[in-house]
Each structure stands twice: as C-alpha cells, then as structure tokens.
C-alpha cells in the first residue's frame, strides 16, 4: 500500500456490544509503527455528526465496524433485514457527506486489515464512479496516504453489516450505495467516553 504499512488480517470478527453498554472502548491491539501514524490521528469531529453518532464512534473498540447506508438499503433487502448493532440516523446528509463526517470521528484500521473501507458492489462501486471517487478522496485524506476501497458482493456485504457495531442511515433518498468502515487504534480520551447527557468522573 503506497505510503502506508502493510496490513495483515487477523481473521477475527468484530465484538458486538449491546446498545446500552457504555463501557470505555477497549485498548488497541499492539502499537502502531511510527510510519503508520497519520498527522490527523487526533480528530476534529465534523460538526454534522449528531451527538449520538459521535458517541457511538468514540465508544467503538479497535476492530469494530460501522456501516453507512442510504434508506434504499432496507427497501432493497429480501425479507426482513436483521441488524445486530445500534441503528442511528443522519438526516440531511447524503452518503458521501456522512462518510466524510464518520472519518472525522475515528481512525481507520490500516494495521491489521488491507481494506478498512468496503463498499457494496453495485453500479456506484466502480472505481471511476463519482460517489466512489468522492469517498476515496476522503479516505486517503483522512489517512494521509492511499488506501483503496474494495467492493464486496451484496450478499456478503449484508452479512457483514449484520455484525457491525452500528449502522448509520442517511437522509438521502437516492440509491447511492453503502459502506463499511473498520475502526483502528483508539485515540479517544477516556473523558469523552460517556453516554450523551452522562456525568463526568
């Protein structure tokens, strides 16, 4: 991967937590080599992130994943779509804007996986498609080096979404595609790992 370290998959699946579980995120696995560190490790959250979405991103542990989808993701499903994680909404933004906001609230895992961002394989998943290119720019800018998004067949993608820590539904009614983002080494201060409205220590 140009400019970044090689990523090695661990084969482990994300650890699911109940929506009511507000424990601090677990510590990252191992140390990030110096060459992996991005100048944007300490994030400045996008103001479009609602407080409940921002808390979910901060509460996620290393290796947890979050999906970003448009409303058509559910209407396109065959039968009932079961989601184990917490479902939250980001009204007023499209998928590309939501992805930009999400990437401002977490650090991608480029240490243990080769593709920390995956997209459902549809027409919009072609590398030269406008949506794909827009999100790819955000991913590369967030990391400070190129990290190609990979497309995943729809049945496999939906199976992976079922294991996500959270699912963010945008307010864009257009059929724009869906992404899964894997969180890397946690850099969130313990002081902010409190539920919205929670009391400090």
TrEMBL record:
<dbReference type="InterPro" id="IPR050443">
    <property type="entry name" value="RbsD/FucU_mutarotase"/>
</dbReference>
<protein>
    <recommendedName>
        <fullName>D-ribose pyranase</fullName>
    </recommendedName>
</protein>
<dbReference type="InterPro" id="IPR007721">
    <property type="entry name" value="RbsD_FucU"/>
</dbReference>
<keyword id="KW-0413">Isomerase</keyword>
<feature type="region of interest" description="Disordered">
    <location>
        <begin position="1"/>
        <end position="45"/>
    </location>
</feature>
<dbReference type="Pfam" id="PF05025">
    <property type="entry name" value="RbsD_FucU"/>
</dbReference>
<dbReference type="InterPro" id="IPR023750">
    <property type="entry name" value="RbsD-like_sf"/>
</dbReference>
């Amino acid at each position: 991967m140009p400019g970044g370290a090689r990523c090695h998959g661990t084969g482990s699946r994300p650890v699911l937590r109940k929506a009511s579980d507000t424990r601090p995120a677990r510590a990252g696995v191992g140390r990030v080599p110096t060459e992996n560190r991005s100048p944007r490790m300490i994030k400045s959250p996008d103001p479009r992130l609602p407080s409940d979405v921002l808390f979910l991103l901060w509460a996620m542990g290393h290796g947890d994943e979050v999906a970003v989808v448009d409303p058509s993701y559910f209407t396109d499903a065959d039968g009932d779509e079961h989601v184990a994680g917490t479902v939250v909404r980001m009204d007023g933004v499209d998928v590309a804007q939501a992805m930009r906001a999400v990437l401002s609230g977490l650090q991608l895992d480029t240490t243990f996986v080769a593709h920390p961002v995956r997209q459902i394989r549809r027409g919009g998943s072609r590398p030269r498609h406008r949506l794909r290119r827009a999100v790819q720019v955000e991913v590369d800018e967030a990391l400070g080096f190129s990290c190609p998004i990979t497309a995943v067949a729809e049945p496999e993608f939906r199976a992976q979404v079922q294991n996500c820590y959270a699912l963010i539904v945008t307010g864009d009614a257009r059929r724009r595609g869906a992404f899964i983002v894997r969180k890397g080494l946690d850099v969130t201060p313990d002081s902010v790992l409190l539920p919205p409205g929670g009391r400090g220590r």
